[in-house]
Amino acid sequence: MAENSSVQSVERTFDIIEALSPAPQGLTLLELASAVGLPKSTVHRLLSTLGNRGYIAQDPESKKYLLTLKLFEISSHSLAGYDILSVARPYIQHLSRITNEAVHLVIKEGREVVYIYKEDSSNNTVRMASHIGLHNPMYCTGVGKAIMAFLPRREQDQIWEATEIIRYTENTITDYSHMRKELDHIKECGYAIDDEEHEKDVRCAACPIFDYTNMPYAAISISAPCSRMENTRIINAIIPELLSAAHRISQIMGRPEPFPR
Predict the structure, then answer these.
(1) Which pLDDT belongs to residue 1?
(2) How far is the C-alpha of 105 from the C-alpha of 140, rounded, in Å?
C-alpha cells in the first residue's frame, strides 16, 4: 500500500511539473489544482517539496508558482553526454547485421550532407564511393532528400538555389518542380529512396533523424546494388527496420513529437 502511495505521489508531482511547463508566467495554487485535478492541500504539499528541492519558485508579488531552471540544468547535463555517433552506432551496426548491407550515418552541414559513419558488410561486393568525411549534395542522395524533406519550404528553396545541380545519372532529379513533389512525398511517407540518382546501379533507402527542436539534422541509410534492392525488399524488409532505428535514435536525441509512420 505504501509503495502504491509513493508511486501516486511521483505521478502527481510530474503532473504539476508538466502543468507548469507551458506557463512561463506561473500559475496560482487554485489554477494548478484545477489543471491537475487535485485538492489544493495536496498540490500545496507537493509544491513545498519541489520548492525545497529547488525545482519550483513562487513569485512574491503574484503568488504564482513557476518552474526554475533546475530541470533545464539537469537535462543539459544529460544532453552533453549524448552525441549522434555514440547514440546511433549500435542501431547502425544492428541494421547492417540484419540486412547484410552497408549502412551510413550523415549529418547536415549547410546545403550538403557529411558522412560521419559507415558500417560495411561482407555482402558488399560492389564498393560504393561513400566514405567517412565525404560531402555530398542533398538533392541527389537518399540521406540528403530525407533531411531536406522535413526542412521548412523556404530553406528547401534556398538549398536548391545555392546548389550546383548536376545530372550524375539519367535518374538524377534536376527539375525543381519535380523535386518539390518528391520532397512532399518523402515527408508524407517518412523515408526517401535514392533510385540510382547519385551512383549508377546503387539504390538507397534513408530516414531522417530529429533533434530536441524537432528539426532534421542527420539521417541513416541502407545502400546496396540494385540487384539486392528490389522494391519488395525495400518496402517489406528495409524500410520498417530503418524507420524503427531512426525513431529510437530521434527519441534518445530528444525529439518531442511522434516520428512519422
Answers:
(1) 43
(2) 16
